[in-house]
Amino acid sequence: MSEIRERKDYSNGPLCLSGRGVTKVFGLGDNRTVAVDHVDFDFHEGEFVSIVGESGSGKTTLSKMLLGLMTPTEGEILFEGKPRDISTGKKRKEYWKGIQAIFQDPFASYNVFHKIDSVLLDCIHLRGGKNLSKKQKVEMMTEACSFVNLKFSELTNKYPFELSGGQMQRLMIARIFLLKPRILLADEPTSMVDACSRATILDMLFELRRETGMTIIFITHDIGLAYYVSDTVYIMEHGRFVESGKADDVILTPQAPYTKRLISDVPKIHEVWDLSTVDLLKEDA
Ligand SMILES: Nc1ncnc2c1ncn2[C@@H]1O[C@H](COP(=O)(O)OP(=O)(O)OP(=O)(O)O)[C@@H](O)[C@H]1O
Ligand SMILES: [Mg+2]
User: Fold this and answer.
1) Which residues, judged by CB distance below 6 Å to any ligand atom, belong to the binding site of ligand 1?
2) Apex 242 CA angle, 239 and 247, nearest 5
3) Which ligand is nearest to the Cα of residue 39, counting in written order?
4) Going by CA atoms, what residue is nearest to atom 6 of ligand 1?
5) For a disulfide at 106, which of 168, 202, 216, 230, Cβ 3.0-4.6 Å?
6) How far away, in angstroms, is 23 Cα from ligand 1 center?
7) Residue 71: its pLDDT value, please?
8) Helix (H, G, I), strand (E, B) or coil at 99
């Protein structure tokens, strides 16, 4: 259990993704919604950041802007300290080598007409592996599947919809294993699965971070889980960050009333992770 509870201070390390005044407004007039309202943030290389907030607080909208799937109404996003430029298809593709996501709904993440082999092959090709031999590609896919406890030989020729929800989640992580992005954005990847699979998935994310040094941006409702997994926490209410900082500072000595309320909704915050992440403890204990 060494790594997970041992938090590092990344605040002086290299920046990977930052935002200044990032805002998203939907609709006009009476239908106007300010989903994300002038947020500032600095995410560092290798940092495990959680963004915590209730439903409708703007988390997914912010993720879509981070991924370049949605344009901010106002504000600026910086990638590795420089203004992000994704103005052309080519630049966007290049950007996506650096940032990848695991979405809330895995079923929405795959092209249902593509077999699993081609989902994984696409990742190898995106990383410049087009000219590798078929044997090498199969080896890479097999390794990626075994990293997430799936058997590649049982998946070939299947379509994503033929998998269970949990297998699908793991397939998403196998993609990340092949893509090795600098930043992984995980929007509640655990919401569909039970506590045990949730722990396994988090375990895999930690393992990926250990191997590649990637930054993980984890989006969740669950402040207890955020406390357990993160170095840094941003608390989001009505599109704004009401509080941010080291997980220990924010959660053990919260300042904002909203953070205090989120914490009071968790009966015993120190015990939450004992229950929900039992599997995490097993290997490193
Ligand atoms: N495409 C859209 N058009 C109009 N309003 C939108 C759109 N997407 C999101 N919203 C609104 O923006 C606000 C923030 O939504 P968002 O999906 O970002 O919240 P969330 O924090 O991810 O919630 P949840 O935890 O339920 O996933 C909500 O009021 C939502 O109704
Ligand atoms: Mg959401």
Assistant:
1) 26-27, 33, 35, 53, 55-61, 221
2) 115
3) 1
4) 26
5) 168
6) 13
7) 96
8) strand
The structural domains of the chain, with segments of one domain joined by +, span 13-109+182-284
Residue 147 per-residue DSSP state: H
Question: Is the pTM higher than 0.70?
Answer: yes
Among 59, 73, 190, which is best to mutate for testing ligand 1, by the most ligand atoms less than 8 A from CB?
Answer: 59
Architecture, CATH, for domain 13-109+182-284: 3-Layer(aba) Sandwich (3.40)
Residue among 207, 214, 210, 209 at smallest CA distance from 147: 207
Mean pLDDT, the chain, whole residue set: 87
Q: Where are the beta strands (DSSP E) in the chain?
A: 15-26, 33-44, 48-52, 74-79, 82-83, 99-102, 183-187, 215-220, 232-237, 240-246
Residue range 96-102: mean pLDDT, rounded: 91
- If you measure from the C-alpha of residue 73 to the centroid of ligand 2, how many angstroms do you get, rounded to a whole number? 19
pLDDT digits (tens, 9 = 90+) for 235-263: 999 999 999 999 999 999 999 999 999 99
Instruction: Report the distance separating Cα 285 and Cα 221, nearest Å.
Output: 27
